[in-house]
Amino acid sequence: MKDIKCDVVIIGAGLTGLTLAYYLTKKGKKVALIERNDKVGGVINTGNVDGFVYEKGPTTGVLGSEELVQLFEDLQSDCKLELTNPEAKERWILKGNKWEALPSGLFSAIQTPLFSLKDKFRILGEPFRKKGNNPNETLSDMVIRRMGKSFLDYAVDPFISGIYAGDATKLVTRFAMPKLYYLEQDYGSFIKGAIKKKKEPKTELQKKVTREVFSVEGGLGNLIKALEKNIPEDSVFCGADNAGVEVKPHGFITTFSDQSNGEETKISSGKVVTTFGGTALADILPFVSFDQMDKVSNTSYAKVVKVAVGYKKWEGNPVKAFGGLVPTIENQAVLGVLFSGSLFRDRCPREGALLSVFVGGVKRPDMIDKTDDELKNIVVEAIRKTLKETKEPDFFEINRYQNAIPQYDILSEARLQAIDSIEEAYPGLFIAGNIKDGIGMADRVKQAVQLVNKL
Ligand SMILES: Cc1cc2nc3c(=O)[nH]c(=O)nc-3n(C[C@H](O)[C@H](O)[C@H](O)COP(=O)(O)OP(=O)(O)OC[C@H]3O[C@@H](n4cnc5c(N)ncnc54)[C@H](O)[C@@H]3O)c2cc1C
After folding, report:
1. Is the same domain home to 327 and 399?
2. How confident is the model at residue 451 (pLDDT cuts 50, 70, 90)?
3. Residue 431 domain-assigned (yes or no)
4. Distance, CA 32 to ligand 1 centroid (Å)?
């Protein structure tokens, strides 16, 4: 049995755990980062096959927090931020098997067939509509109330599929889109709020939070490599089975066994941070009461199938765009597609195309149980029908995620309260990860940095 002492044990080496370990190490703390998989990165994982550099999990992030901007500055000698190709800006929405560009200005908004004439007029009254008073209002109710049903169907619903693979009738705005919720609460209107916020003075770092979409040169996996490189090798324990935490008078003891040889390791630390949710949490923290833990581990997740599709020579409709999202009302199996080969450099052969297709989500949980052949038929048929590429792809890879994205629904309030009371009952224990504070990469880095300051 190995016996180790450190300041902070971090369980889970996805983006949250790695960022936390990186900054704690920088501050001179001794950490132990414990990971069940045989490599770090969590759902972020870049593959490279036959000239296609593709993402198995998340494909893009948004420069949406100061902490993420700072992380890229801190890691600049080890990985390079890559913003999307400006020529591939257009975002598409499927309507009747045809992609329509999402309006980007007033003129295109007037002309678009996506929204009804009534709602186009109605939007002019948005700044004057009175603000809502239900803190648990769902996104769909809020959007219908302020903007109209066609905006829900052809803008917000597909956008929610793209981010949460979720259901706008179930997600509670205050938790799922807090910025939108507070625009209405603080300024009385989305439009008024957005204009006023734009005029507020900003620090140099805040000015860099441009909300542009990014990857990393060579794929997001290079961000993971850069973080890993800057964490001492002997602090990272991959292939850790049966991790468990015990509470001791002056801290915690974390144990796990090595998957390769069964050897046990015991780590004493003053602090422990977990970075994942679901039922695994109850096994790791057996001292937490069932009642409290149940409110945390009953989080519902979207099941997502992520498919990478590559063509060495693309002969379909031009895909010089960001990607396309599919509204629920269109009743399709595919949630959306990103044209990764158009967005980032050197991801596919020069005349080819690389598409990242998302299938399933909360509204089609059955899709994850389809066989590989069934999924391939669904995806290739959707590409044939909407993008007019009739050839078989040269490259095709399926990755399934049973617990892809936690849903910030009506159970969120009870979950967050339970996390607070567990942390209060066991000082030094922190329950982090995407079950709170947002699911996007910018949110993950922000949470980790805020935790570093607390720790
Ligand atoms: C398919 C998919 C697409 C996405 N697309 C985007 C996107 O385009 N843009 C965006 O911003 N976000 C996207 N997200 C969300 C974002 O990627 C995640 O919220 C974020 O990467 C999660 O990081 P994390 O470290 O919190 O969790 P994870 O990456 O899930 O890491 C948690 C780690 O904990 C480990 N672990 C779990 N249980 C144990 C245990 N018992 N013992 C030890 N280790 C354990 C896991 O193996 C894992 O490595 C996507 C997510 C998925 C799944």
Report:
1. yes
2. very high
3. yes
4. 19
